[in-house]
């Protein structure tokens, strides 16, 4: 095994998702000793302004891009070569964030997730994500590039997605199982053939790879997997989990 690239994580959006990403990176790196793992630097700043509020133009919302640009530059200065940003909504401005450090390789979570969904046979998965992510059509565009379509929650269901993200996960409270199961059932009602967890806060729910017979593709898991590969480390075959 040759030298691996150093990974940087721009985290804190939220802290639990960042912690889960690091854990999944460790799990997905198929090595036998501590010394064989990837060198990872994590900058977890929970003070990053709310991404959805800014993207939707809410009164008083603060631009999050300059903060994340500073994090990217700091990771570059610390010797990182690959960067993961475990916040799908922030990817609406990933080009601007990455522009301050063009020598870094940013792992594009939505695009990698859409390609993964296509690889496991999804043609029209339901996207569960923040209002900001949906409004910016981050996953809709990624799905189109991957050669598939995607479904979005009905107008009366999307508030339930936001409730899980903001009122439960971000608030440190367990989400009611019935609420989460209802979102999976909604995918079936829409005729979707899979579910994409398009907000890393939803990743902390610990859903299995299949729920109610549908593949559940966790964008954070895909980010972890592709980050390991980008760092040129031996990686677990995530696709095999959906075989």
UniProtKB/TrEMBL annotation:
It comes from Adlercreutzia mucosicola. Its EC number is 5.1.1.-. Keywords: Isomerase. It comes from the Bacteria. Transmembrane segments: none annotated. This is Amino acid racemase. The keyword Iron-sulfur does not apply. Belongs to the aspartate/glutamate racemases family. It holds the Pfam family Asp_Glu_race. GO terms for molecular function: amino-acid racemase activity. The keyword Isomerase applies.
């Amino acid at each position: 095994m040759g030298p691996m690239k150093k990974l940087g994580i721009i985290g804190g959006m939220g802290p639990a998702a960042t912690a889960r990403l690091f854990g999944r990176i460790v799990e997905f790196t198929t090595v036998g000793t501590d010394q064989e793992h990837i060198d990872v630097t994590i900058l977890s700043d929970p003070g990053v302004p709310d991404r959805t509020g800014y993207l939707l133009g809410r009164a008083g919302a603060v631009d999050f891009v300059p903060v994340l640009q500073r994090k990217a530059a700091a990771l570059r200065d610390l010797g990182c070569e690959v960067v993961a940003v475990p916040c799908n909504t922030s990817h609406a401005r990933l080009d601007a964030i990455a522009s301050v450090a063009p020598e870094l390789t940013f792992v594009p979570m939505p695009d990698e997730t859409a390609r993964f969904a296509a690889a496991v046979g999804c043609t029209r998965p339901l996207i569960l994500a923040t209002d900001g992510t949906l409004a910016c059509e981050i996953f809709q565009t990624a799905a189109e590039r991957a050669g598939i379509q995607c479904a979005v929650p009905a107008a009366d269901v999307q508030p339930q997605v936001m409730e899980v993200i903001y009122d439960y996960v971000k608030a440190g409270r367990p989400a009611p199982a019935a609420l989460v199961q209802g979102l999976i059932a909604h995918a079936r009602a829409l005729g979707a053939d899979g579910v994409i967890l398009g907000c890393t806060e939803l990743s902390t729910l610990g859903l299995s790879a299949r729920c109610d017979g549908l593949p559940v593709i966790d964008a954070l898991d895909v980010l972890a997997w592709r980050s390991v590969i980008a760092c040129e480390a031996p990686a677990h075959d995530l696709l095999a989990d959906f075989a």
